[in-house]
Amino acid sequence: MAARVAWRSSRAKQRPEETIKADRNIGREASGRLRAERRPRKKSRGARSLFHAWPEVIARLRKADSRALLLDFDGTLARLQPRPDDVLLATGARRILRRLALSKDLFVAVVSGRRLGTLQTMIGVEGIHHVGLHGSERAGKSTVLGKRSRQDLLRAKRDARSKMDALPGVWIEEKGLSFAVHYRGARPAIALAADLILREILAPTRDTLRILQGDKVWEVVPREVPGKGVAVRELLQGLPDKTAVMYFGDDETDEEAFTVLPGQITVRVGKANGTRANFYVRGPSEVLRFLVLLEKELQ
Ligand SMILES: [Mg+2]
Asked: For position 165, what pLDDT does the model report?
């Protein structure tokens, strides 16, 4: 990991080409009511374009004793689709991940809200570290819920199914230690109804459950689920202090990871404002483009 890498400065002039419109936080737009739990935020000055800052990024990577590449999956490595089961990792992305995972100069991990087994199957690359369910599922380690959290989660799941499954465009995804309420296909009035129902269901469980806002999805998770910030800290344990960390993510859940990586190469996918990341790219194809550049520089 400590080996120096021959970086080529000829990549410094690369610029983004693709425009992908960010489509976030529809629940709040639709209803203005249901809100994922948030910490108080520092006023953001906006992230900088990763490609515009390329010379600086390269310089940081060159100076580091080691390098870590951490990636969210949905909306970051792979394009979002109407249903999670329809999301696919492009062949080109898998190929580049496979090569990066073989690099002795790079630690590679994917940190996702998906189940660990699903994530491993969808990525299908050996040598990558996987963390599922927002930090609660990782190889050889899994969060065990306390009795009250378990009971509250079961009750909330049951109520959500019985009260929301019939709403057009709304569906419940079972995720073991959590569940997700998807409303991508719902009209705003229906999303508003779902918002009200979910708030009512969760009102008695404030101490045990919380909501994570995704892209047209509310995920209900126990507070005992550590979150991506804790997951990232755990992943980086054992790496040298002067590790340059690159973290790419497109969701509010990724903001927790950005928070624990101040001064690192944190990259929000899909938007430049309202993020704690230091840089942004416009979509998964720009993430892939970065990976290609990174691999070329690592050679
Ligand atoms: Mg995502």
From this structure: 83
